[in-house]
């Protein structure tokens, strides 16, 4: 196909093969071979050279370049990441920059840095080129918005970006290393040798980018930033691609792509005035075109409006102020119906990064059935984008503009009511989802009041959907908790932290757990809820424990014990001693762990919390077993099991049967161990908890092997290996080694 297109374009120019060879510097023989299809995969530099010589632009150029890509490379393979945002509609110009990016594919540099003033179209260029080149990256595309110049000041930390990439590459949260350095190492190992495209959008500086560089020449990285990122250019040889404002011709082409060539050709003087007033910036030009389309006004009328507000747009050349495009934004806003305009303003109260349709309905106080029309109107006006079905995002500057409008046009009482509904929406939704995931959890210390009128909380059904809801809304929940703290919704700050804990433990979100509970500490102390302050310190300690920061964890646990004792909270002290037992176990001190587990039993006994006491008894038995004290271990675990069966706590029973299997195996009774482990496995299967069940399968295999049944051992080890492999868990290698030994 490439050869046929090449020959067709050459003939349309009226050129011979000799003419084309002379214009490109290629040999006549090379041109002939390309046209005859005797070159399987033309070099990217050659393809770009031919496209430039033939004067190809727009769709013709895209088709020409795509035809040079082997067809088996174009569709993404199943299971590979494909994170690119949608391509830019009506993209125009930037041929020189596109050619430089094309050259990165075949050149020595594998990193390109797109830099330029705000609104110049860095992201648009990066995304458009990425879609055009996606076929050359069969192993997938990764994308992250680093929010380097976020108006709200929220940077995406490298740790959060790397965690997102590991998620996309199939690494479960609980299998990721604790430290950033280790996570970066795992990310680079996953990408090594793979032909991938990585887009790092809106970087603040080189330090934010360096941990995200893959370190393999097979992957191409495109970085966008307002900063020139000289450190990357000098340090790793990145290819700098500087974007200036569009040329006058390119600006006109952009307007023509949005409005149609006939309308643009019909009034060249007004087009020239619009281009000049918009400072040839794609952002302003795109919004100006939307103004023409939505209003139906003549070009000269829009040009006159721009002339009146032109002094505001002059600053777009160099300044970095959120007020630069207010006048242009106002045209789209002025075209909205009253319900859509109100929703747009109220969305300025949402801290982002994305909002669901139900959350938007609660924010506006609308029934869910009535929120779709104003949302669609905002999308049509380019004031909102549908990121995924039912989830909406907006440009950062639009968020600032919406917030300013809300302050100017909506009264203080209306704004406060909207924020109340928004906070209630997320608090009640998270509480419900947490109860679905962990229905046996102790009641929340501060019960929720009914949500404010007009609030429509989400109620995901089933554990899988509830966890998926948390996955989707996690960033928004963290932002909402910050907003609640800023606006004085103290109780909601504590309730949100509480509602997120199960999810944070299940998914291994150590940083998220630490963040929400650190925010809860001063609030709980300020309102005199010492038991919540103690729980906050305990959960911060848990996050530190999971991150292997043992001194910090111990310090937090000691503060928690002090606060729980002051509050007279026996249960809180019991849970803290359980956490201290875990800390001691991870430190390799089972005797200290046994001590704290025993203290937990005493505290739960004092409070009459028998279900918690049952789990603490199981822990006591486990630590006795670790110390070789098998008789004491059996006594405590059997007591635990009796209590847990009374409470029909299948999860606790599964762990206790696992402990009993461990005790019998360590005591030299493999047949009895097999019986206990099999019961644990059955319970984990009934619960659908394969992650916790896999280690039990490994131990069951060990007991089968000790009993002399190698065939049964290999059968359950294979089951465990399949689970660990699916989770990308490091224990997969250990189990594989067991299977390889004969």
TrEMBL record:
SMART domains: HTH_XRE (SM00530), TPR (SM00028). TPR repeats lie at residues 654-687. The keyword Transmembrane helix does not apply. It comes from the Bacteria. Keywords: TPR repeat. InterPro entries: Cro/C1-type_HTH, Lambda_DNA-bd_dom_sf, P-loop_NTPase, TPR-like_helical_dom_sf, TPR_rpt. Residues 6-61 form the HTH cro/C1-type domain. The keyword Ribonucleoprotein does not apply. PANTHER family: HTH-TYPE TRANSCRIPTIONAL REGULATOR RV0890C-RELATED, REGULATOR-RELATED. This is HTH cro/C1-type domain-containing protein.
């Amino acid at each position: 196909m490439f050869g046929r297109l090449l020959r067709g374009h050459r003939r349309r120019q009226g050129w011979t093969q000799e003419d084309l060879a002379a214009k490109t510097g290629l040999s006549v023989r090379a041109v002939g071979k390309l046209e005859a299809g005797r070159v399987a995969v033309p070099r990217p530099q050659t393809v770009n050279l031919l496209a430039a010589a033939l004067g190809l632009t727009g769709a013709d150029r895209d088709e020409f370049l795509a035809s040079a890509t082997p067809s088996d490379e174009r569709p993404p393979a199943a299971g590979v990441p494909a994170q690119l945002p949608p391509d830019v509609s009506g993209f125009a110009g930037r041929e020189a920059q596109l050619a430089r990016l094309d050259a990165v594919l075949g050149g020595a540099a594998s990193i390109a840095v797109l830099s330029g003033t705000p609104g110049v179209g860095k992201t648009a260029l990066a995304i458009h080129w990425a879609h055009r080149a996606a076929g050359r990256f069969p192993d997938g595309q990764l994308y992250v918005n680093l929010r380097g110049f976020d108006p709200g000041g929220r940077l995406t930390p490298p740790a959060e970006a790397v965690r997102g990439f590991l998620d996309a590459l199939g690494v479960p949260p609980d299998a990721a290393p604790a430290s950033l350095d280790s996570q970066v190492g795992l990310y680079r190992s996953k990408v090594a040798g793979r032909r991938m495209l990585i887009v790092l959008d809106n970087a603040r500086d080189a330090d934010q980018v360096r941990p995200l560089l893959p370190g393999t020449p097979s992957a191409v990285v495109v970085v966008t930033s307002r900063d020139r990122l000289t450190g990357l250019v000098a340090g790793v040889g990145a290819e700098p691609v500087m974007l200036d404002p569009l040329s006058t011709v390119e600006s006109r082409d952009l307007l023509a792509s949005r409005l149609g060539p006939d309308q643009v050709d019909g009034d060249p003087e007004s087009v020239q005035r619009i281009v000049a007033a918009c400072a040839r910036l794609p952002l302003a030009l795109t919004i100006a075109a939307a103004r023409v389309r939505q209003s139906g006004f003549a070009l000269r009328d829009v040009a006159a409006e721009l002339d009146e507000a032109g002094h505001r747009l002059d600053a777009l050349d160099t300044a970095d102020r959120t007020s630069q495009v207010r006048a242009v934004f106002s045209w789209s806003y002025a075209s909205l119906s009253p319900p859509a305009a109100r929703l747009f303003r109220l969305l300025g109260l949402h801290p982002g990064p994305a909002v669901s349709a139900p959350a938007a309905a609660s924010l506006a106080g609308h029934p869910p059935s009535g929120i779709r029309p104003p949302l669609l109107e905002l999308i049509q006006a380019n004031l909102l984008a549908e990121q995924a079905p039912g989830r909406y995002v907006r440009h950062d500057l639009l968020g600032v503009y919406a917030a300013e409008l809300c302050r100017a046009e909506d009264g203080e009482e209306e704004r406060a009511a909207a924020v109340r509904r928004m906070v209630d929406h997320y608090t009640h939704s998270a509480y419900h989802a947490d109860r679905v995931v962990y229905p046996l959890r102790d009641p929340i210390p501060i019960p929720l009041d009914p949500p404010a009128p007009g609030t429509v909380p989400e109620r995901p059904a089933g554990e899988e959907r509830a966890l998926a809801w948390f996955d989707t809304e996690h960033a928004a929940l963290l932002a909402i908790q910050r907003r609640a703290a800023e606006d004085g919704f103290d109780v909601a700050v504590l309730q949100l932290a509480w509602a997120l804990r199960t999810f944070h433990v299940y998914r291994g979100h150590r940083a998220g757990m630490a963040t929400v509970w650190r925010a809860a500490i001063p609030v709980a102390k300020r309102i005199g809820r010492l038991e919540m302050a103690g729980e906050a310190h305990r959960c911060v300690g848990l996050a530190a424990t999971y991150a292997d920061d043992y001194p910090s964890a111990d310090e937090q646990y000691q503060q928690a014990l002090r606060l729980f004792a002051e509050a007279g909270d026996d249960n809180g002290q019991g849970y803290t001693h359980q956490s201290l037992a875990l800390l001691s176990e991870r430190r390799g001190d089972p005797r200290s762990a046994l001590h704290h587990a025993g203290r937990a039993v005493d505290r739960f006994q004092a409070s009459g919390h028998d279900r918690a006491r049952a789990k603490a008894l199981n822990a006591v038995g486990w630590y006795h077993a670790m110390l070789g004290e098998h008789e004491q271990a059996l006594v405590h675990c059997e007591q635990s099991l009796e209590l847990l069966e009374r409470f029909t706590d299948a999860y606790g029973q599964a762990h206790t049967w696992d402990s009993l299997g461990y005790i019998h195996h360590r005591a030299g009774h493999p047949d009895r161990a097999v019986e206990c482990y099999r019961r644990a496995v059955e319970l984990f299967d009934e619960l659908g908890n394969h992650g916790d069940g896999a280690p039990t399968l490994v131990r069951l295999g060990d007991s089968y092997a000790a009993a002399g049944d190698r065939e049964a051992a290999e059968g359950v080890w294979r089951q465990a290996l399949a689970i660990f492999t699916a989770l990308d868990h490091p224990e997969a290698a250990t189990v594989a080694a067991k299977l390889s030994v004969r």
